[in-house]
Amino acid sequence: MKELISGSLFFGPALSLLAYEAGLIVKRKFKLAILNPLLIATTIIIGVLAVAGIEYEKYNESAKYISYFLTPATVALAVPLYEQLSLLKKHFAAVMSGIIAGVMASMISILLLSKLFGLTHEQYVTLLPKSITTAIGMGVSEEMGGIVTITVAVIIITGIVGGITAEFVYMIFRITEPVAKGLALGTSAHAMGTSKAMEMGDVEGAMSSLAIAVAGLLTVVAASVFAEFL
Amino acid sequence: MRILKQLMIILFISFLGEILKMVIPLPIPASVYGLVIMVAALKTGILKLHQVKDASSVLIETMPVMFIPAAVGLMTAWGALRPICGPVAVITVTTTVIVMAATGVVTQTMIRRKRRRRK
Hints:
Chain B: It is a multi-pass membrane protein. Chain A has 230 residues and is an all-alpha fold. In chain A, 82% of the residues lie in helices and 0% in strands. Chain B is mainly α. Chain B has helices at 3-23, 30-44, 53-61, 63-66, 68-72, 74-81, 85-118. The radius of gyration of chain B is 21 Å and the shape is extended.
């Protein structure tokens, strides 16, 4: 059995897609923010691999071909960004200031907390891209010498936390403006925050997808500067 | 337009991104260069929206699946994560809320100030 899986080109992708479908079904059934399909799929696969005694490397030998499409998928984010250019122009100053404020708040708070907890440089740069979309975040972490798998985990946890806390945060800080709500979710919790923003409304969703790309790009630049501080 | 042709265009732009990454000594992923190239190409009209729209939608919709192999990689990273899992949990939750509040408050304040000025 193990030999069969080691030699297979399709075991990894098939298991991944199957587990993701299971995640979608669970999410549809319970509609809870914590039941993220990606989180569920990951848990199922880790469980299956652990029970069957299959190493991650064996699984990834074939599953890595799914990740191969991450670069073109990120390039494809140019389409929603292009489609929202007019909305961006109308509120340009407010939109850019909001995203810049969010990116700076992210960098500064991660730096201060990392110093407080006495994290190493490697651990610090691993956390720096935590609020941006995984495709860009993985690249940033890799370039800075971070631990990419932890970056991915932290990015996923960030997405879940963002979706769960959004309504609460908006209530406390009295944020009611749709543009502001969308940007806040996209800047803090990337694509997973965007799916939450889509539930709130069209403007929220559009602004959130815009924030994914802009905050992602700004973080690439900001993180390379902030990486020097610890 | 045929989806294969659309995918070809996106893959070619990804390749251009890789070339830029090799040439420019900055810690910027090839995907980000590609994203900027594609927005510029759409904005200047070199590329029409209908030439990439369908393939882009498919790629964006299936994006969460592409993160699965890396997320499963957590099983090998657990050893490195365990000693810092307390601080990481605190930092993740705290900073997410801080970023959300900062972006939301700044954007809303500026939109409202502009609206008041117009009145």
